[in-house]
Amino acid sequence: MESSHKHNLYTANTRPDCWDALRDPQHPLNKAWPLFLDHDAFQVQFADKVLEQESLRRFQFAIMESDADGGESIIAHARSIPFFWPELDEVRDMDGTLSTLPHVLHTLPDRGWDSIVARGFRQHFTREGLPIPCPPQAMAIDQDSDPGASCSTTNTPVSPNALSALSITVRADRRNCGFAETLIEALKQVAREEGLRVLVAPLRPTRKSEYPWMPMEKYINCTLSESPTSRVAQATQRLRCRSLGLGKGGGLPFDPWLRKHVRLGGTLVKIAPSSMIVRGSFAEWQAWTGIDFYRLTRALSAQAFQFRSDSAEGYSEVAIPGGLVPLKVFAREETCTYTEPNVWLYHDVGHALG
């Protein structure tokens, strides 16, 4: 990176125009994520609303790069949403960290990203006295599966007590320059300023897509000294990773994104097995991945793909570019379903829990 470049951190409150460039689907920051994730129902409904809602803009950050000629571009950004965590609210007059309260940590929803974004927005719109602008069925999924979805047991709007990161994205050619660390610290700082007790995040391990057949439980317990490097081992599920109890048994995580958070004080909590769910027809999945699923289902032994079949459930599985886990292919219905697991992590932000 040229030394003439200068960098500034802004919120969507102070510089809402920073995000204008991201309207282009070909922008490098948009290309950092697999295209199919844009079609998760909750992503479709809520992705842009953190910028549209004035009271949420202070929780959104952008890093802008300017050159010697005054040109400016967005090179990294973070999205987050505050939410009320009822189990955390029950912890009173207690110093220390959440690591001493596993029963609270494990109430983070199994539906991960989808659940926390739905919870955060439902609570936000309730506090603001606004209608919830999303299909009832999408909210019903979260309402039924998330016991902490309502604002309170009395249906009276309450203030948030936690912050969840939704995404932290850095342009590919600006990674490993400290920008992700800057954004993580900015989220922790705004949580402190707003009186929120903890920062949590449903993380997407960046290198898990290289090992789609490896269970997430096994992958996140791989350390730098026990990295899943053998492709033969990958294919035969003989990867040698010791069970470390979500990274607590010694050694930094193999995955660079998990490792970065741990180095900044983060603690892995649990796996969210169905954090994002994307369903679509063969035609839609071909547009998202470039794979011809009609031809694929006629030749399951195609050399370019790995398959696993479950005849009882009526589907086969195929590894897809960018997928953390295999895609389920339902030949009879001509549809595919992708269910992405994420990893819940939390950061203390410097407040006592009571």
Jot down its keywords.
354 residues; 12 helices; 10-stranded mixed β-sheet; alpha+beta
List the helices and strands and how they pair.
Elements: E1 6-11, H1 41-46, H2 49-52, E2 61-66, E3 72-83, H3 86-89, H4 102-105, H5 112-128, H6 136-145, E4 162-170, H7 179-193, E5 198-203, H8 216-219, H9 231-236, H10 256-263, E6 267-281, H11 282-289, H12 293-298, E7 307-310, E8 315-318, E9 327-330, E10 335-348
Parallel strand pairs: 4-5
Antiparallel strand pairs: 1-2, 2-3, 3-4, 5-10, 6-10, 7-8, 8-9, 9-10
Helix pairs in contact: 5-6
Quick gist of this model?
Strands 1, 2, 3, 4, 5, 6, 7, 8, 9 and 10 form a 10-stranded mixed sheet that branches. This protein is an alpha+beta fold and 354 residues long.
